[in-house]
């Protein structure tokens, strides 16, 4: 039995003898939570007598369990109720802002965080959260500077380094992000954001053997990480493990329902499996997120081309290229139309121009992708 298990067992015995002691309940929940036993921690808290369950420390830990299991609205509700009752603290404000961020209410989260700074001053935890919120707001300079402030207060903090790496990555500072991610992973091999950066950079280089264990390590502790799931699904596509890739990408799309790139990745996977109707549904979901995204209209052109609806495909291609002259899916659709209309040389020439450098299409070899699409087109899967 490990030291952790011994301590948890001892605390369970103490709590059984003194079930109305909220401090014991909180200590046991903390011990379980620290080793990832979130459900066990919540079971302990849920089984407490009602008078103990109302203790501020118990409620705070129930909210933390809700955060850990993705029940963000429940967590925010507990935090807000405690604040309304006059209970306050830097950890409470932090967790409320974090719950709001997880619900993608970035502006609200930043307001909560600003109030925490006003009331309690800067802490590394608050500054790291500020960096995360700035990331969601696409303010990459603020995200990096906030992480740097946290690192000035706590040098070598792996979480601050990981969040900084992701901010650099999303801000297109790839070399800097790679260095920062490596630094973070040398300190904590499981640091989530650093793993995302390192794995995605390897994926873009089509180094799937290096990328795969990095994504898997990220998902080991964060199984609902949308970005890790999306990247891992694309990696499985490269390995031609299409059914499994489809399952992973579907999970990613549920986790990040407003992320267009994940819907596109799922659609490509479905196309390669000949599931044209499902691919169209994925592109329609992407269209609901942003109706003016060129690659989505290009994807709908692909669907039309695969169904032999060439006039409709032409219309969607023109719409896509008006919105984005470089829309890769529209260019793929053009190549398919050329092939379908007997212009094999023109199709190959068009495909040869499609050599994207970043993002989803960088992780899929153009020649292989084109070959798979052509096979789908000629296989009779409509």
TrEMBL record:
The keyword Nuclease does not apply. Keywords: TPR repeat. InterPro entries: TPR-like_helical_dom_sf, TPR_rpt. Pfam families: TPR_16, TPR_19, TPR_8. The keyword Chaperone does not apply. It comes from the Bacteria. TPR repeats lie at residues 294-327. This is Tetratricopeptide repeat protein.
